[in-house]
Amino acid sequence: MKRTWCSTFILIAVTALAMTFTLEPCRPATGSESATAISGGIPSPTQTHKASEDIPAGRRVFYAAHSLMWEVPAPLGEAVNAYGIKDHALAGLQSLGFSRTQQHWDQGAQAKQALQTGKVDDFIMSPMDMPDTGVDNFVALGLEHNPKMRFFLQNNWAGFNNDGQKARQFKMGPPWDSTTEEQLKTLNTECENAFEAQAKQINEKYGHPVIFIIPTSQANHKLRAMIIRKEFPGLDRQSQLFLDQIGHPTAPLVTLNVYLHFATLYGRSPVGLPMPSILKRVNNPKWDESFNQALQELAWKTVIEYPYGGVKAPASAK
Question: What does the pLDDT look like over 32-52, one tens digit per residue?
């Protein structure tokens, strides 16, 4: 259902806590020692999924999300299961509309309680503008109870079609479809740089990589540029990615984001995975298996080319 401005601002005011705890025993990751992702010892990804390759261990994942990320956990679970990864678990989902991570720290007890158990492997956040002291707080608390934890930031696409650093100012950019490819090159640069600066600062503080960035902004802009150039069959307009001017995602953009999360968390290519339910149930004949694979390929290429994600490309892909 399409969000109205009224319902969107209700979302901003509401702190909906959807809490699901399914904590499973953690297994060490397995795989080649000759090429590994720097994000916690997960085997380096292969260019496409092959049934014969070794499968990484499942992760217990907690999401502290606003509305540009809270649709990710369920289809991510589908992708993980389809890949054959065992023991992946949603340790929890704390949802706060239009939220900074500091708000999750201040208003939601669920996330803190989960980290205090020491039974969360990966903690995924979606800050608005940066720096965000909530990110530092969650990293410190998580590492106190599980020194092997990893933390991830989703650097959101440009909400309101404007730089994310201005998101809380509700500053409207131009309509989606009037944005040029040249404008896309710098549309969210300030926000992307701010995310990278805080991640770098945190990793330097702890002396090794503990926090990584899921490159949602970069992938979104690549996809929009391809749409402008008529290079992505199935999408004719940039606005087909968004439900409204705020930037809430349609099924294709959610799907792309899921593949970005999968590739960054597990260090594996999503290419070859079946179409997720969220895309399939739209029943758009243009959004077929070829369309799904194109989203997978874009996600994988973006992840292995982005150094702050922590995933190294396999030698065969270089």
Answer: 222 233 333 333 333 344 444
